[in-house]
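Researcher: For the annotation table, I need structure tokens for Glycosyl transferase. Please keep the output clean. Sequence:
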Amino acid sequence: MGSACRRAGEDLFVRFVWAVAAFVLAAVMIASGVAQRTLFQGPKIETTAIESAGSASYTLIDGAVLNRLPGAQTLRAAADGTVFAAYGRTADLKAWLSDTEYNAVTLDKDSQVQTELVGPADAAEGDDPQHRDPAGADLWLDEFQQDDILIEPLQLPDTMSVLVATNGTDPAPADLSVTWPVHRSTPWAGPLIVGGSILMLVGVFLYILGIRRMRRSRGPRRKALPPLPDAQTEDQTADLSVEQADKGVISAGEPAKAPARRRRRAFVAIPVVLVGTLAFSGCTADAWPQFGGSPTPTPTETVVDTGDTQPPAVTTSQADRILARISKTVAQADEKKDAKLAATRLAGAPLAERKTNYTLRKEISKEAALSALPASGLKVVLPQAYEGWPRTVLMVADEKKDDDTVESTLMMISQADPWSPYKLTYTGRLEASSLPDVAPAYLGATAVQPDSSFLVMPPADIAAAYADVIDKGDKSASAAQFDTDEDPFLKGVATKRKEQLAEFNKTAKKKTGSLKFAAAAGSEPPLALATLESGAIVAVSVHETETAKPTNDDAVIKLDNNPRAEALTGVKESQTGFTTTYSDQLFFYVPGVGSTDAQIRLLGYSSNILGVKVVSK
């Protein structure tokens, strides 16, 4: 009996030892795992301060510096007054800075950040660097402004850079830094925490078994009294209780056991909750070993490897911003009848037509303003894929009118150089039911040269050929090359000429005067961007003229019913006659050589009066 008790005691002791060992080891493992995720994980960000090399007004942070560490970049710049920052393609920003000096922030051969002062390219000795306010330039993909301090999160590829300045004249902010999030993986934190939690559960299990074994291994007990019959009276029950107490028998009734059970349940629940909490604290992806290698990221639809092709001139969001600026400036110019203000955003035929309209509105109270340009609603953006200048972008914008109809406007905008704003060079109402297929905005399109032989007609010849069709109709040598059956502009011109001639002959009766019509190519160069079907969308201008002359020496041409001509010439009649010129802006789809649809199709147009002159003798 003694040896059996000793073996039971030793077995009980071993169980408690294993339980304690499991508790201690579990605590060490869990503490180690938690420490990896907290105390030993290190800083979560890394910041690099950028020094200025001088008092230059601009600082250019190269894309290699921004991507020196992986992850998003946070730019911080501080200075007295307004702080400006913008980002764009590195080549574009360097072109914008080519005539001035700036701080160039790059990486040296050891991948350390360095700053050097770069002077104007090809500057003559003694020339001062150019200074201009960078805010509002169309070249930026996006820009930010803040007073005193600017903090902006970015996520730019190494092909883009950031320009930091104040107002373009004062020195660039000297307090400048870039911050990256530091990703520190702790691959064994998860296994340690979960393994420690499991070991703690094992320790709890062993401890419970030990407690149970200890209770079962106690010495012999007196046999408990049988249960009393139900008919016992309260006095008998009380006497029995006293008797049991005198005999040293402990009652095994429910009231004595209930508190003990509650204590054991609470003891078991606490470790389980603790273990669960600790286990979940390590369940993140970077807290576990990665055995499959790093996954290769998939490019999104807006980030496409274009290979050796040149980047598009603008992005869709950039085009939205440029269109809004053009529309706002032209609206202000229309309100003030300010041709100089209009010239900051218009060029070519659109500017010439606006100038004429301003003159007429100053002289004729009932003269209406030209149609306002849409400020939003872009549904097509086709930028030229070109790193140099000038650059061209085709845009189509939808605008809802008061009668709930939707009008689509075709536009060509161009940028002459890195410092110039984009200007509207062609515009017209979209008349075609559909446009040819064009490349997406993130790829862009190549510009087609005016003398290109890859189209059924070179862009440089289209205006003159179409003008001949306007004058001669089906008898024109170029008529077969145009889709005249579905051309609303040709039909409108023919109807208008017929009505004007009939009205003129009511007074002249072909005896005292003549009215002749003619069309010719305008002075504006054509603009053309390639489509996906080897064709091109081409914008050209055509000038239509109406010349009224007297047919005998005694006759004169009066302007009684033509206030426009009177306002533009300053006279009411002429013995030599008048020539009225209209400006037509025309958009065509020109197929490529070998296309099954070889006819040139009109896509849209606009037509406005350009000027009136007295016929010279």
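Researcher: And a one-line annotation?
Model: The chain has three domains: 1-38+184-216+264-289, 45-181, 316-614.
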